[in-house]
Amino acid sequence: MSTARVWSDGPHYRHRIRTGEHDLIADEPVAAGGQDAGPAPYDYLLAGLGACTAITLRMYAEKKGWELGELRVELTLLKNREGDTRIERVLHSDAGLSDEQWQRLLEVAGKTPVTRTLQEGATIETRRGDDASAA
Questions:
Q1: pTM for this entry
Q2: Domain membership flag for residue 129
Q3: Rounded to a whole number, what is the distance in angstroms from the first to the last CA of the chain?
């Protein structure tokens, strides 16, 4: 189970995030009215998907005895005029992988836990908390 807590205490759109033992900051870019004090929410979404992809591929390669070298995952979130969202994910490795190895890595990337969650969707339940002292 993963958990996160987010506090909105300003300024503007800057928010504090606590997940596990890690403290993070989220904000919006200056062009969107923020101060660019940290990644925007979609940046965190892409970072989570990219990290899950890289971790999963590294684990898979280790089990297979494959050397991945430096693995890089580049992600871009795109929205069209109709509001449809698409994420482009491009994998890079400086190791000399065969076409067969690349094909398998691409298949595995399509099945990572975060990939599946995004593709399948998640039920989100929102309710009112008792009070602000829960922070």
A1: 0.89
A2: no
A3: 19
Question: Could you tell me which of 9, 4, 89, 76 has the C-alpha nearest to residue 43?
Answer: 76
Say whether both 29 and 44 belong to one domain.
no
Structure tokens, 64:
């297979």
Measured CA to CA, the distance from residue 50 to residue 90 in angstroms comes to: 10
Check which CATH number belongs to the domain holding 46 and give it: 3.30.300.20
Report d(CA 36, CA 27) in Å as an integer.
Answer: 6
pLDDT tens track for 89-135: 999 999 999 999 999 999 999 999 999 999 999 999 999 998 665 55
Q: What is the extent of the structural domain holding 27?
A: 1-39
